[in-house]
Amino acid sequence: MRDVAERHRISSGSPFEPTIGFSRAVRVGDRVLVSGTGPVLPGGLCPEGAGAQAQRCFEIIEAALAEAGASFDDVVRTRMYLTAAADADAVGAVHGERLGHVRPAATMVVVAALLDPAWKVEVEAEAVIP
Description:
Elements: E1 7-10, H1 16-21, E2 25-28, E3 31-37, H2 50-67, E4 75-82, H3 88-99, E5 105-110, E6 121-128
Parallel strand pairs: 4-5
Antiparallel strand pairs: 1-2, 2-3, 3-6, 4-6
């Protein structure tokens, strides 16, 4: 049996976590990996505009990072998935507001669709805790 680093799994309570089999975030050593995060509000709805959806994604990510002992200051990489290129400025502005002081490596791509047709954006993050 191989040695596996201890994993600290963080849940956000998403109904998809047990059915798909994933964690909102996982901390292994000094690394925190936050799964693709959709803009879900309590109750399952999501905000309308891409900027508001990005804000919600980052709120969920911030909470997961905090539970793992990290913060936005520790983020080294983000990935943003958009369903429309026209939303890049709105989503980019939110990314800059939340992470501009850190300037992580970042990727923004346009995809055909996300899991929920109402979602315009989904965000992933990776952090390294000093």
